[in-house]
Amino acid sequence: MPIEKQPKTREPMWHEWDDKAQKKGIHHTVYTVAGDHYTGDWSNNKKNGKGTQFWKKSGTIYDGDWKDNKRHGFGTLSIPVKNGYRKVYSGGWKNGMRHGYGTNFYSPTEYYEGEWYANKRSGWGRMYFEDGSIYEGEWFNDLRNGEGMLRLANGNRYEGCWKDDLKHGTGKFYYLDKGQLYEGTWRNDIPKCGNMIDYARNEASHPTQYQLPENKLQNPEAVIREAEEKLEEDETE
Fold it and tell me: Is pTM beyond 0.90 here?
């Protein structure tokens, strides 16, 4: 009985050409018509894995992790300066935005290190300001919100509550240069009611000429409590 040979099946040529045209695996460098270029890993025609992106118009460089054409994972963003490049951000990314823990440099002497959510400082973080002051505490929506401490360049510090970047709520302000301490309630960065006492005068660099007079109110705690209640009432009206 004769043996019949089945003809070999072969994929159309365009299938092979299309497969070769797909961006997958490790590529050297892929350029765009705008002059941008990317060097790194690809999957399903998208940047996936590790790679470096250069944007010609701004000169910005991102080196790190990618997922579906977006910065995702850990990576570093740098911008061109006169003598090379300056790092702007290094840390976590999610869907192209700063997310998780990272450090952002606003200038060579001003930077933030801490938690991010959707490109905004949110969670716990420490901010170093150009004037030498340092804030350490909670953030929300890119502003100081919650509990935190601000230490000024001269050593004075505030410990307490914040709302939308302002001292707001209960807190303590240590005037260490004068040897005094204020403890009370703040509203919109202004101390409204509280108690001022002498504090570590013997260690102060510029103590006040005279000590604070003795508080002779019969019940100072009750007076402060009444003032705080009035503040709360005014806020709710």
Answer: no
